[in-house]
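ok so for the tutorial part 2 we go from a plain amino acid sequence to predicted structure tokens. step 1 is just haveing the sequence, like this:
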Amino acid sequence: MNRYYITDRKTAGGLEKLLRVIDEQIRSGLELLQIREKDLSARELFELTRKVIGIRASRSTKILVNSRADVALAAGADGVHLPSAAPYETLPGLLVGRSCHTIHEVQNSRADFVTFGPVFESPGKGAPVGLEALREACRNSIPVYALGGITWENTAECLEAGAAGIAGIRLFQQPSSDALR
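step 2 — the prediction. this is what the tokens look like for a chain of 181 residues:
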């Protein structure tokens, strides 16, 4: 199962706690990590990305920067995660992920993979799309990560629907005894 952790230092309890969670998750074999700290300046985002790359060291976790290909390239990250509405552009050398909320967005996404959801109820994310929509989204040729209201208890349902993996914020920021499954 592929795991895609999306950061949020505020819900993690601050930057130092976030860096500890990132370290734990990378050590556990995390596949993808999206640095999604929207309120940071370009310089702060660059510095955070460099710290995360340092934590990763020689492990295989792919590091992506939210919406900032320039920062991803400058910091040496592996990729960028873009909203579905962002214009398509060729980003040589970068893995490109996109956030999708409808089947149409998945079908028209030009990316290496997409996150799709919210699959289940998730605070502030609108009505859930449900497992049947996830199943339909996964019928496309692009890898789909289930996002939104994902728990360790409903992960199997997402994978059975065809998801390449699971994505989330809170899911990975729980105490390590719960989060490192």
